[in-house]
Amino acid sequence: MSTERTLVLVKPDGVARGLTGTILSRIEAKGYSIADLKQVYATRDLLEQHYAEHAGKPFFEPLVEFMLSGPIVAAVFEGQRVIEGFRSLAGATEPTTAAPGTIRGDLGRDWGVKVQQNLVHGSDSTESAEREIGVWFA
Ligand code: DAT
Ligand code: MG
């Protein structure tokens, strides 16, 4: 199995709560390496590219507004099966019910908007990883 790369975002809620170090440290502790890292303020254009698959869904506009609400930490992590490994580590989309032991399950909850503030993004396939890395690290 060859080395893979994935895009990880610490979303504005994770950065605002001071969880960036904790989150990156949990990913490193599992054995994945940071290949690239930066803090960024997203733009609407960048988010429309990143979330292209969700365009037109009812949660799209609130999701974009949330992602514009503060700085984001974008990282490229690498390692064998890192895409699957990180999504497993991140946990289910909804933080209230994400399994304990996962980043979302241990560190997240509903703060008034059911799903949105779930701390992290991780690419879901090799194709989306390469596309998303191109969007955030152009
Ligand atoms: P994931 O981030 O687990 O890959 P996704 O790609 O389906 O989930 O959705 C992207 C983000 O959009 C997700 O992290 C939070 C938000 N989202 C998804 N489904 C939602 C819903 N039903 N209501 C509100 N926000 C939602
Ligand atoms: Mg997704």
UniProtKB/TrEMBL annotation:
Key words, A-Z: ATP-binding, Cytoplasm, Kinase, Magnesium, Metal-binding, Nucleotide metabolism, Nucleotide-binding, Phosphoprotein, Transferase
Enzyme Commission number(s) from the entry: 2.7.4.6
Protein's GO biological process: CTP biosynthetic process; GTP biosynthetic process; UTP biosynthetic process
Recorded GO CC terms: cytoplasm
Pfam family, one: NDK
Entry's localization field: Cytoplasm
Record GO terms (molecular function): ATP binding; metal ion binding; nucleoside diphosphate kinase activity
Active site positions: 121
CDD domains hit by this protein: NDPk_I
UniProt domain Nucleoside diphosphate kinase-like: residue ranges: 3-138
Cofactors named for this entry: Mg(2+)
Keyword Nucleotide-binding among record annotations: yes
Signal peptide from the UniProt entry: none
Reaction(s) catalysed (UniProt annotation): a 2'-deoxyribonucleoside 5'-diphosphate + ATP = a 2'-deoxyribonucleoside 5'-triphosphate + ADP; a ribonucleoside 5'-diphosphate + ATP = a ribonucleoside 5'-triphosphate + ADP
Binding site for ATP: 11, 59, 87, 93, 104, 118
Subunit structure: Homotetramer.
Family: Belongs to the NDK family.
Biological role stated in the UniProt entry: Major role in the synthesis of nucleoside triphosphates other than ATP. The ATP gamma phosphate is transferred to the NDP beta phosphate via a ping-pong mechanism, using a phosphorylated active-site intermediate.
Name assigned to this protein: Nucleoside diphosphate kinase
Organism in which the protein naturally occurs: Arthrobacter echini
Lineage: Bacteria, Bacillati, Actinomycetota, Actinomycetes, Micrococcales
Gene that specifies this protein: ndk
